[in-house]
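Box 3.1 — From sequence to structure: Taste receptor type 2
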Amino acid sequence: MIIPENPLIYVIIVTLIIPLPGNIFIIVVNIQDYFKNRRLLLSDHLMIGLSVFNLLHELLDTVVFTSKFFEENTTYGYMYLNMCSVTFSSLLSIHFCLKIVNIHHWFYIGLQRRFSKLLPWPLMTVISGYFFLSLYSVLEIKPGCLLNTTSSDFSLNLSPRCSWSLLILMICSGLCTVLCTVSALTILISLLKHMKRIQENTEGSRSPNMDAHIRAVKTITVLLVANIVIFISLLWNNLLFTWNETTWTYLFNVLIPICHIFSCYSLIKGTKKLDMALAKILQHCPFLTRRN
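Predicted structure (token representation):
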């Protein structure tokens, strides 16, 4: 594969490298915590899953630059990783809601008590369903399925089998994005109301619960914006690829790693365990320590 001479290609490479240490840091710290305490919180599991799929997304970007085979099938790979990332982000937002917000309703109370126990098997089923659907679409793809020269002959060059499989994946990804958006906005509204009540009860003084709520609001907001931008970038990238337009695809390929950077930073700063582990590492960096 010949890489076009485009200045944005170097920006893409840089944005692919920057999130790698952060995602690896999240995974390693949680694994160390598991071997130390022999258990992990549900939020830790979800953050590990989100970081793993972000890493796979960056690895796929790297492979696309070096292999022509993956260039033809990259649409389904991006769709799969995008759906998994949005799914984990949605579940993380729902977990924050169940953990922080209290709603006096029998269904909500039951979900609070059983969410961590009921989640693993449905989550594995959904992730496996995404994988086999994407794998089936890749195996059934035909030569020239995603290739066309003009928008006028789009319906002629795109086979019905390919168009339907791609449409199903796009609909699933869109539904996950909508679920993440609705749940995150609901959580933000509930958290802001709850923070206002806490501030009124404490007469304006800042409490530890307020700090935890602020961290949760920042984390959920960044995850929400990042997921929306990722889905829109992936959607437009697929449309541009279908229209045989490669000029703007590099711009959208830059936005996705940038969203991973902000998501990773938000997860680290929003989690006390990760933030403290990062502070300890930075204290041992000689070029960051202040000389007395």
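Summary of the box: The CA atoms of residues 99 and 112 lie 7 Å apart.
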